[in-house]
Write a structure and sequence with these properties.
Blueprint (H helix, E strand, L loop, with lengths): L1 E5 L3 E8 L2 E5 L9 E2 L1 E4 L5 E3 H10 L4 E3 L12 H6 L7 E3 L5 E5 L2 E3 L1
Antiparallel strand pairs: 1-2, 2-3, 2-4, 5-6, 5-7, 8-9, 9-10
């Protein structure tokens, strides 16, 4: 069995191995989990984790954190209307009407 914790600040993975919950180290992390950040760099490439965190420091408008808050929200939901002004990134709507983000002209949903 595999467990994935999509946290507000970090994502972590663990598996049951021989009946024991065992954390699975993610490549490029120090064991504390993968930073829950997505970014688009100046070349239009998508970045996640530590690379996205570094890009966020250089260009905050091309990065988003705390995306867990948008999971399952429809773009027209009252919850999103309340949450949207508090977010440090622009909220967008995908073709299905779900909430996403727009980073440097790229829709991420």
């Amino acid at each position: 069995m595999l467990g994935i914790d999509v946290g507000t600040s970090h994502a972590r993975v663990a598996a049951f191995i021989d009946g024991v919950a065992t954390p699975i180290p993610l490549p490029g992390t120090d064991g504390s989990g993968l930073p829950s950040v997505i970014a688009v760099n100046s070349a239009g490439e998508f970045l996640v984790g530590a690379a996205a965190l570094a890009e966020a420091a250089r260009a905050p408008r091309r990065a988003a954190t705390g995306l867990k808050r948008l999971l399952g929200l429809r773009a027209r939901s009252p919850n999103l209307r309340w949450l949207s002004p508090q977010l440090p990134f622009p909220v967008a709507t995908d073709r299905q009407g779900d909430a996403g983000v727009e980073l440097d002209g790229h829709l991420i949903a």
